[in-house]
């Protein structure tokens, strides 16, 4: 029988079966299982052993904790006028670790907008391990928006605040200034930093690789803004004080100067200025000497401005009266001799103050043992920190009484051998304006006049005011300190400066400290002119005119009624004879 022919399309033909060896299947399944086990172990390792590391790496790249800046508190004067305010600004930063390479074109555009050299920006972005670098801080919102419009991945902005001082150099030594981080660095900005700073808030966000915020990862902690600080300063009087002090320093070709204005009833500091000064809004080229708050931190020997205190002690004890006549011829004390610049054989106690007699003051001081005189000086605040709440306040120098020799006690009665600050000296004069009480001084407003510490009786304080009024009348050393419409009491002082342990013949400090209206005192003004070289160096001549201008303007600002006769007139300066006073 012939063989059967098969067609390619014959479906009855069966294909040969494919067989897989059982061993091969086991190998494949085992391999897959092993790989799965490795993946599982790797996942467990990453989830357990490496969880913190991976979490930190993820957070470093995409999680950001943003500080929400608190607005720093406003510093205002007693009438609400702003002296320091914070204005919003923008800061540009970048995250080099998550940034692609920045093209040269983008780098040039960024450098141009930020006004920073391109090489400096390139250097900051070079370290790819860094997660955060500042590119430019505290720029205007318009400038920051222009930067963000470049669309450079990894470059972002955040809001900060920059401090602005409307009064500029006029108040720089009081208010001080802050650094770029908003922390107080000098003045009341430093002393009251905690009060002004407030508390920053926080926002935790998730960012994409381009730096854009995707989501908040926690509840937002809002910032708590700083408190407003209202000072005792009156900006109007401060303007007068700074203007007149600057004029006194420049006219007298002096090295420097300081001025303090106190409320004679409350001890509030209404003005305090120094010259030279500086602009806290622009500190690019700042001489450290300009930053010295001389009225608070500099010590000097006060000369004859010290004389009212031993005289008050003598009157308080009953040993003398204003009309008591004293022998004021040259006075030998121990190994030294006390002389007057313009000697007279006899003077009343009132004339001792009016004409600034060293001899008369020394004799009254030596009526008492050293301990009693030391107690008087200590009671009016000499040798003690005035505690006005200002950084760097000094307590002056008052040596222990056990070490005093008679001649030293005599010279300390007219301001040599004891050192004070101008603020201390102004404060001491509150015993004459507050009926014998030494008042605390303050840069903050006080709700009511403080009680103070009783040093002398009201009757003694009244007698001293009457005697010190004679200083600004014809024959006194401070006629240039008179004020139109007001009776003025005070004391001039001229002291040689101690240089390398010796008193220099050509370096002086000119002073005038006084109060008005003398019949019901309201203001105390203390003026210090350091090393005048304009021809005269006497306190009544170099400091008296500035005192007069500030006192007169301050009384008008406060609306104080005149206490002098209606026909009261000022003597023209060119008709006032200069009374030469050493100490």
TrEMBL record:
It is found in: Cell inner membrane; Membrane. Residues 68-215 form the Penicillin-binding protein dimerisation domain. Its EC number is 3.4.16.4. It is an enzyme of class 3 (hydrolase). It comes from the Bacteria. Its main location: membrane. InterPro entries: Beta-lactam/transpept, Beta-lactam/transpept-like, FtsI_transpept, PBP_dimer, PBP_dimer_sf, PCN-bd_Tpept. The keyword Coiled coil does not apply. One of its GO terms (cellular component) is plasma membrane. The chain crosses the membrane at residues 21-45. GO terms for biological process: cell wall organization; division septum assembly; FtsZ-dependent cytokinesis; peptidoglycan biosynthetic process; proteolysis; regulation of cell shape. Catalyzes cross-linking of the peptidoglycan cell wall at the division septum. PANTHER family: PEPTIDOGLYCAN D,D-TRANSPEPTIDASE, PEPTIDOGLYCAN D,D-TRANSPEPTIDASE FTSI. This is Peptidoglycan D,D-transpeptidase FtsI. The lineage of its organism: Bacteria, Pseudomonadati, Pseudomonadota, Betaproteobacteria, Neisseriales.
